[in-house]
Design goal:
single chain, alpha/beta, 6 helices, globular
């Protein structure tokens, strides 16, 4: 009998602003797009939270490397997908989409857990072509993360994007009257990124 409780995927439990919201993520170190953006002047990726975090947590680096291989190489059998005992859950807190297998596995996790609202952050739109052949789950919110600091991108030409998330430098915010509407101290108390409606553009100030 297949073990219905076992999943090979690592689930990260977060503290700080994400306390109470767990995630499944891959490693930016194994994502060519992430590495390219980190070397591009002006990108938010040059301020990468994942780079700082993973540099001091080798055990997490190893777990995320395993996740990357599992999620991108093939479609994971349904019985090996996690059962999520939470109302809200995040995809990709340390990496980004790599291919359609990656997204398909996230979609299948959504389908297995209809009671949970999932939010996926991505800068990579190509894998979203998956939804040309199947419906996007109702319990999946997709947040497009603007590539450059202080530059909100209009990604709503893509019908599968729910929000655009942009990070602003403090002085730029002050000089240009930017409204910061991200409850960045407490994601669980804000939840703007975990709903289909509400603010289309979500703005966070760089810490």
């Amino acid at each position: 009998m297949k073990n219905q409780l076992y999943t090979p995927l690592h689930i990260t439990k977060h503290g700080g602003k994400m306390s109470g919201i767990d995630s499944i993520s891959t490693s930016y170190l194994l994502n060519p797009d992430c590495l390219k953006r980190q070397s591009t002047k002006g990108t938010v990726c040059q301020k990468c939270y994942s780079k700082r975090h993973l540099s001091i947590k080798p055990s997490l680096r190893k777990c995320l490397a395993t996740n990357t291989k599992l999620l991108t190489d093939s479609v994971i059998p349904e019985y090996q997908l996690p059962t999520i005992n939470a109302r809200y859950f995040r995809f990709e807190s340390f990496g980004d989409l790599i291919n359609e297998n990656h997204l398909q596995n996230f979609v299948n996790i959504c389908k297995k857990n209809p009671q949970t609202m999932f939010a996926l952050w991505t800068k990579n739109l190509e894998p979203l072509n998956l939804f040309a052949t199947q419906e996007k789950p109702e319990n999946l919110v997709i947040v497009y993360s603007s590539e450059y600091l202080n530059e909100p991108e209009n990604a709503f030409w893509n019908p599968y994007i729910d929000h655009v998330f942009t990070v602003y430098e403090k002085q730029y915010t002050k000089d240009n009257g930017i409204t910061i509407n991200c409850g960045s101290r407490d994601c669980l108390g804000c939840l703007k990124c975990y709903q289909h409606g509400g603010d289309k553009y979500i703005n966070e100030e760089l810490k």
